[in-house]
Write a structure and sequence with these properties.
By secondary structure, this protein is mainly alpha-helical. Helix content is 74%, strand content 0%. Helix 2 (12-29) packs parallel to helix 7 and helix 4 (46-74) runs antiparallel to helix 5 (76-94).
């Protein structure tokens, strides 16, 4: 069964929730290609541009750490609903932002807060309604489709639509209205904690080592690779794409994120945990291709680089979510999922670091340094991380892949 077939076969409540995740993810990346237009209109430097992109993480991290534990106490819907509304409001803030850089920072910050709450709590909510292995795949598919179609819409409309810095955001507002209509029909069956700490990492006793050695390295890969693909790669070659740079940036972003969906059948057949090390390895190769593209001024090479970086994103996200769902206790699933996403979203700082450390007007050496670090993470996921996860009280034996259906107990209440 393909990934899209799995989503169509999901329970109706899950399908509605996946639409909510898709709608919010769509809006999150709509502005990514349009940043190139803002750069020209507001005379922004590369570092300023990536800083606008990365301030997303500043809004996201507090929401991540607070929203997960809150949803474990009061329920998923009460946390998700107001942030879905805020998602639409953030897009409206972008409408006048083409003339005001401060509004760009504000709108992007709000998008981060929305993502921190909706993606972590929404993923935990999906897991409440179905098996953890299925939940990880479904959440990854919905998020990846939104992450892919959002920038594609932003890139194409931002290049050729009559109102290039307005119309893409209005499309997202319509999607948010649809998502809100579905939200109230989704059953909230999360096991509630009568009392609990305001800040809770959600790591059960005995699971700290496997979380640190497997889930954290996987999380570190999740948004590092796509954020570099979406921002730094088109930025470095913008001068070679005059007249179609925003569209190409949108295609690169869409290709990167959509490949995250297409790798799902591979992960399902091979076992997401077993092949987790592929993610940083493919990401390293993709970054090397990006350096070649920059050195030779060949923007078409960005496309195969985007494919590899997208595969790295999809594989690391599903592997990390699978491990996280497996390690989490039912009463703290939202908290542990939030902890995983908190590490993952630190990857949004990678473009700023690369731009800030760039020399001679390029980012080639910085990208190669990230590629080397990725190979270290590949070794960690292939060896110590996987062994620690398999040896945990949730993971069975070393020979057993925790992503197979026989190795995953139903953790629904």
């Amino acid at each position: 069964m393909s990934s899209s077939d799995e989503v169509r076969a999901a329970p109706s409540g899950v399908k509605g929730l996946l639409v909510v995740l898709f709608a919010v993810a769509f809006g999150t990346n709509v502005p990514s290609p349009i940043l190139l237009r803002y750069r020209a209109d507001l005379d922004l430097s590369g570092t300023e541009l990536t800083a606008i992109f990365a301030i997303y993480a500043a809004g996201l991290l507090p929401a991540l750490f607070l929203a997960g534990p809150a949803s474990d106490r009061v329920g998923r819907r009460r946390v998700v609903a107001p942030f879905v509304v805020l998602s639409g409001l953030a897009s409206l803030v972008f409408l006048p932002a083409s003339d005001d850089v401060v509004l760009l920072y504000v709108a992007r910050f709000l998008q981060g807060a929305v993502s921190g709450a909706v993606f972590s709590v929404g993923s935990a909510w999906v897991a409440d309604l179905t098996r953890p292995d299925v939940a990880a795949r479904h959440a990854t598919i919905a998020l990846s489709l939104g992450f892919g179609l959002g920038p594609l819409t932003g890139g194409l409309m931002g290049q050729w639509a009559p109102a290039p810095t307005t119309s893409p955001y209005l499309v997202h507002v319509v999607l948010v209205a649809l998502a809100l209509g579905l939200l109230w029909r989704i059953p909230d069956v999360s096991p509630r904690q009568a009392r609990g700490p305001l800040l809770n990492l959600g790591i059960p006793p005995g699971s700290g080592r496997p979380f640190a050695l497997f889930a954290v390295p996987a999380a570190a890969c999740v948004f590092t690779f796509p954020s570099l693909s979406i921002t730094v790669l088109p930025l470095e070659l913008q001068d070679t794409m005059q007249g179609f740079d925003v569209a190409v940036a949108g295609v690169v972003a869409a290709l990167t994120m959509t490949v995250g969906v297409l790798v799902q059948p591979v992960a399902k057949r091979a076992g997401a945990v077993r092949i987790a090390w592929w993610a940083p390895a493919l990401g390293a190769v993709g970054l090397v291709l990006a350096v070649v593209s920059d050195a030779l001024d060949l923007w078409p090479v960005l496309l195969p680089a985007a494919v590899l970086l997208g595969a790295a994103y999809g594989l690391s996200l599903i592997a990390g979510l699978t491990a996280t769902e497996r390690l989490a206790s039912p009463t703290a699933r939202g908290a542990l999922t939030s902890s995983f996403y908190a590490v993952a979203y630190l990857g949004f700082g990678a473009p700023v670091a690369v731009q800030a450390s760039a020399r001679a007007g390029t980012s080639r050496l910085s990208l190669l340094a990230v590629a080397v670090l990725a190979l270290v993470l590949a070794w960690l996921l292939a060896g110590p991380g996987r062994r620690a996860l398999a040896a945990s009280r949730h993971g069975g034996t070393v020979a057993e892949d925790p992503t197979t259906p026989t190795a995953i107990p139903r953790s629904r209440p």
